[in-house]
Please model this.
Amino acid sequence: MRNVIVTGGSRGLGLATAVRLASGGLRVLAIARTESEELRAARAGLEASHPGALCFRAFDLAEISKLATLVGQLKREFGALYGLVNNAGIGTGGVLALMRDERVDYLTRLNVTSPIILSKYVLRSMMLERRGRIVNVASIVAATGYSGLSAYAATKAALVGFTRSLAREVGPLGITVNAVAPGFIDTEMTSVLTPQERERIVRRSALRRLAEPGDVASAIEFLLSEGAANITGTVITVDAGNSA
Model:
């Protein structure tokens, strides 16, 4: 069974992705600070049909210096790592001029530094196997911009640049690196939108609706599949046509 790490796998998009991948025959190692009730229920629900397919490890991804130890523990317990979904992140909003420096630093550490360092150590397992898949979760605001999300957009734009360059770096070893760029979807990150803001986003979308976590999970599942073996260094947008 192929092992895939999904960060931020306890809720929202990460949970939807973890469940989708585990249901599809992969062993998912969901990483989050704490195990949510939703993840615990999902694990119990999958146990009968897919025993051992959805696992959980508690870890604070902001602890950069401990990432190497985490990856080493996972490799010893589960074996070679086939995939990594860098989904964990925070969506801190606010006018940049009023944001605390500490908040900007934490946003950058969790959204950029952590996935880069985690990828570094996971890649070492993939390089030995000469195969692997990395999927970074970016955002459409990296390309379109959105008022009040300048620092967040910068972190997601960084992931896109990271994706494209790393794809060239590890492509000769049979490893693909791609990104998905969700639009505004129904998760905790968008719960702060006012009804007026939500309606404005829906009206701007070609399909006149918001994408859902399952839509993004499907794109991630495809990028991890054999059908995507010749797709690398690209960004798949999942936003119901909001940025079309």
In short: The CA atoms of residues 164 and 233 lie 4 Å apart. The helical segments are 12-23, 37-47, 67-78, 101-129, 141-144, 150-170, 195-204, 213-223.
